[in-house]
Amino acid sequence: MKRLDFLKILALSPLALAAMKLKELEPITNGLTSTQKMPVLFLGHGSPMNAIEENEFVKGFRDIGKDIPKPKAILMISAHWETKGTFVTAMAKPRTIHDFGGFPQALFDVQYPAPGSPELANETKSIIKKTQVGLDDKWGLDHGAWSVIKNLYPKADVPIIQMSIDYTQGGQYHYDLAKELAILRNKGILIVGSGNMVHNLGMVAWDKLNADSYGYDWAIEANEKMKKFILTDNHQPLINFKSQGKAFDLAIPTPEHFLPLIYSLALKEKNEKITLFNDKAIGGSLTMTSIKID
Predict the structure, then answer these.
(1) Does residue 264 surpass a pLDDT of 70?
(2) Could you tell me which of 35, 100, 76 has the C-alpha nearest to residue 194?
(3) Considering only Cβ atoms within 10 Å of each terminal Cβ, which end of the chain, N or C, has fewer?
């Protein structure tokens, strides 16, 4: 920098300096310019083995990846990141987290080196008014994120951030919080909830995992009721999932796998359609039902 230019900068008022700072940030905000509205997904992620196996559910994820516009970035709400408070991952290179046990070494060997997006993390933090959002530099991508996104974008060439689930809050809180994310859909961001509508690992029929569409009566009942509420835009019973009777209680013994669905549904607009895919029960007490909103 020339001495004269330096002296000119020193002479600038605080207001001018602030303007210069905004000017420097323009390339960042320009990266999130308006686009056509992106769809929203809820993915029933099931077993992390879906990251390395070939089956009908993997094909369903892959087909959806081909069916939607390629996003600028992904904001993922995964069942496997619960925190007190709300956080978003803000590192440039999120690590691949192998947050499971008892699986083949081949699964632990999988790396999904998608970049992060500090830019999107800061944008997300700035648009949410309901709560203070923290920027996290330690988490990364858990298997609720990478085991399914790997099938949509196998080249790991789409930046991803994760938003945590505040375990201290109920369904209505998460639904209202999710609505504040809607603006990101118009900036090329694919918002994905990853969990399972019916998820009771304590009651899995391990000997029936390979049986086609095997579900206990209560699991089928809960899943059918959930789908009816979803397809009729009747979200309140789903928000109040703890008040829907025994089948729901068995289907949702803990809320972390169900709440990502609430995030996805909150983003649906009246004129948008819902497409169900991977709509099958497995192992008696799990369902892979997944949703596309567009």
Answers:
(1) yes
(2) 76
(3) N
Specify the 3-state DSSP secondary structure of 217.
helix
What is the Cα–Cα distance from 240 to 267, expressed in whole angstroms? 17
Q: Is the pTM of this model over 0.85?
A: yes
Give the list of residues 6+ apart from residue 200 with CB closer than 8 angstroms, or none. 219, 250, 251, 252, 253, 285, 286
Q: Is the pLDDT of residue 83 over 80?
A: yes
Q: Report how far residue 249's alpha carbon sits from residue 180's, in angstroms, rounded to the nearest whole number.
A: 29
Of 196, 232, 230, the C-alpha closest to 215 is: 196
CA distance 218 to 215: 8
- Amino acid making up residue 9: I
Residue 119 φ/ψ, nearest 5 degrees: -60, -50
- List the structure tokens of 238: 């789903």
C-alpha triplet 289, 201, 281: angle, nearest 5°: 30
Q: For residues 79, 175, 151 and 257, what is the CA-based torsion angle, rounded to 10 degrees?
A: 30
Contact 97, 141 (CB under 8 A): yes
Cβ(256)–Cβ(26) under 8 Å? no
Q: What tokens appear for 51 in the block?
A: 């990251």
The string of pLDDT tens digits covering residues 45-71 is 999 999 999 999 999 999 999 999 999
CA dist., res. 278 & res. 292, Å (int): 11
For residue 22, pLDDT beyond 80: no
Structure token pair of residue 135? 């920027």
